[in-house]
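Model it.
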Amino acid sequence: MNQTTLNLLPVAPTYFEWRGHRIAHYHTGEGEPVLLIHSINAAASAFEMRGPFTGLGDGFAVHAIDLLGYGNSDRPTRTYQAEDYIDQIGVALERIGQPVTLIASSLSSAYAITAAARWPDRVKALVLACPTGMGQLSDPAGPIARRIHQSLRGSAGRAIFDRLTSRKGTAYFLRSQAYHDPATVTSATHDGFYLTSRRPGAHYAPICFLTGLLNCDVRAILPTLRQPTLLIWGRQATTTPVKRADAFLAANPRVRLEVIDQASMLVQDEKPAEFNALVRTFLASTVHAMPSHGEPVLS
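Modeled.
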């Protein structure tokens, strides 16, 4: 069924195929390629990467995708798994055809780490915003969670999803978890998240997330990663607090940390100028060297 394209980024998407489904791909700018991977939540899409997408276009070839089940990509009825998203990142990297810097948010950072380890020739560096996978959102879903997922695939799950992603529910999520400054949540920001959750099939991927099917464990992978890696954390993040950075820093000496004040989980959209400046400095000065740890964090 044809649908109006969501206005998520300032360019229209093109599409590539993944296992018979369409994946939305956005591109702007010229230069060294970066690939933006949005987070996983009930109303996720490339919209939350608009700050890096627009701010890095001067000097970089910026690519972004909507993962399957989100944004302008297809939303088929299926049991979504972390491996699906890792593979979609791999296909996007292959299409770009040059070594890429991966910039990913939250749970998708674990997918990016896994992709970088799996295809090291395709990924030259990583920038991870409030990442998970080192003990948080890392345990595989058990039998009970899988039974709950099955019960949520139908009308009951859709009803719960519709309540969570109502205009009121979306506003609560944005102000309590995604952003620190309530003034950041403008009507345009609210609409960008709310409207993407209104598409047919929008609940299938999020209920997999809520029941743990999209969890991704990188505790054994991160220590082996060879690429320079920058963590950028919002100091006021609550869902993924900055003390979680300790595990990443301890696991691999190539990982460094920068913390942006007055920002929460979606730090790349709440403080885009500061975020983009850190990315540019990192890629200019450390992408070919082993960086030292950034700001220390006390557990």
